[in-house]
C-alpha cells in the first residue's frame, strides 16, 4: 500500500508540474486539473486498496487546537504582510493574476475558492489521503516525513521554473 500512495502522490506532483509549468494554461484549467488529481485519484485508489472502515469523530480538543493553530497561522500572515509590504511588488502580482485569467470580474470568486475550496481539497489529499493511509498502514515515520515534505513541493510548482530547483535544496 505504501508504494501505491507514494507513487500516486509523485504522479500527482509530476502531472501538476506539467500543467503549471509546461502547458501554461489559465487558472480555470489549473483548478480543474488539481480537482482531478487531488480528489479523483484518491477515490480511484480507495477502490483498489483494501481498507478497514475507520470511525471518524470530531473531538472538541482537536477542534480547539485546529482553530488555535489556524488563528496563529492567519495572524502570522497578516503580521508578515505589514512587515514586508514595502518590498511587495503589487504590479507583478497584478500581472500574474491577469496572465492567469483573473480580473476584477472574477477576483472575489477566485479569492473565496482559494481560501476555502482549494485549502480543503489540499488538506483532503495531503492529510486525509497521504498521511492517514500511510499512518494506518503502519508507516508512521514515513507518513509524517512524506506528507510534511510533499506539500511544500507542490507549493513550489506554482512558482516559475527557475525557482523550482531551489525548493528542493
From TrEMBL:
Keywords: Hydrolase, Membrane, Metalloprotease, Protease, Transmembrane, Transmembrane helix. One of its GO terms (biological process) is proteolysis. The chain crosses the membrane at residues 31-50, 62-84, 104-121, 142-163. The keyword Cytoplasm does not apply. Coiled coil: none annotated. Pfam families: Rce1-like. InterPro entries: Rce1/LyrA-like_dom. The keyword Membrane applies. Residues 106-149 form the CAAX prenyl protease 2/Lysostaphin resistance protein A-like domain. GO terms for molecular function: endopeptidase activity; metallopeptidase activity. It comes from the Bacteria. This is CPBP family intramembrane metalloprotease. The lineage of its organism: Bacteria, Bacillati, Bacillota, Bacilli, Bacillales.
